[in-house]
Specification:
Blueprint: E1 3-4, E2 13-19, E3 26-29, E4 37-42, E5 50-53, E6 60-61, E7 71-72, E8 77-81, E9 84-87, H1 91-94, E10 99-105, E11 123-127, E12 132-138, E13 146-148, E14 155-162, E15 170-173, E16 180-183, E17 191-192, E18 196-200, E19 204-208, H2 211-214, E20 219-226, E21 232-238, E22 247-249, E23 253-261, E24 270-273, E25 286-287, E26 301-304, E27 307-310, H3 315-318, E28 323-331, E29 334-335
Antiparallel strand pairs: 1-29, 2-10, 3-9, 4-5, 4-10, 6-7, 8-9, 11-12, 12-20, 13-19, 14-15, 14-20, 15-16, 16-17, 18-19, 21-28, 22-27, 23-24, 23-28, 24-25, 26-27
Length: about 350
Amino acid sequence: MAYSTIPKSSDYFNTKLWTGNSTNSTAITGVGFQPDLTWIKNRSTTDNHALFDAIRGATYRIASNATTANTQATNSLASFDSDGFTLNDGGDANGNGENIVGWNWKANGAGSSNTDGTINTIATSANTTSGFSISKYAGNGSSGATFGHGIGKTVKMVIVKDLTGTYAWKVWHYAMTAGKTIVLNTNDPEDTDTNRIASANSTTVTTSGTFAVNQSGRDYIAYCFADVQGFSKAGSYTGNGNADGPMIYTGFKPAWILLKRFDSGTLDWNMYDSKRLGYNGGDAPLFANLTNAESNDYGRIDFVSNGFKIRSSNDQVNNDGGKYLYMAFGQPIVSTNGNIATAR
């Protein structure tokens, strides 16, 4: 029996590592596609995270660890290219001799307006195969407003940032307590807040309140993620406080994981991938809410063929009784009838 990858991870998500050279027009190739979202972190220094997407434009930067506004940074990412991207000489993405990582997602280019919700988006770039979309919308100041995400599958996680600045990154994840929100740029647990993403379905995302998600006169960017069998999965687990921690089934070997304790405590957004020393013994996570350089002082996880295994009692990943959310991407092997299979 022949098997095919549906979808093939390297067509829709890829991690790229490079050493900076502080030179303009430096081409980073080998991504495998033209990215629509590139998330960069300098592993050697305490520079901010830098997120770039095709809707805001390649040279415009926001930082997951800060509330700062969408700002043009012409010395950082200069363009999205057919097999990667081009950098200029800025230290956050191209510091001389520094180790840098870029996580890349494929959506659908610059996109077009989506009219499914009560807010017509300025642009939505959606990939129905990989379950990922980017939407830019203008707030209308109406609590309960909706906007279309274009994925055509039930969305499990939404990350929204006010592009004018001031307001925090708001995250909604289906595993969280109803009526609560969590913030990407802090280590705070979920909290009650009327200004949040309230829910999502197969067509739209629903806002609650205004301010951080829907204030009139402000623009917002939203990254939406749906589960795709054998490729991406949002979920949750409960820690046991033991070095022999939980085994979390995803249905594929992860290539990238974002995880966070959400019920209590002040714990960080841990980021692991299969290219750095970020898993299986190396275990040097980065943190979406911190500028920290790469470090190996935190919780260990192993990537296995069908998920990930917690190998640490560290509270960052495995507090006894703690509730953790995660979003994972990986490369599966799937049979043509859609069942997880083993390659021959």
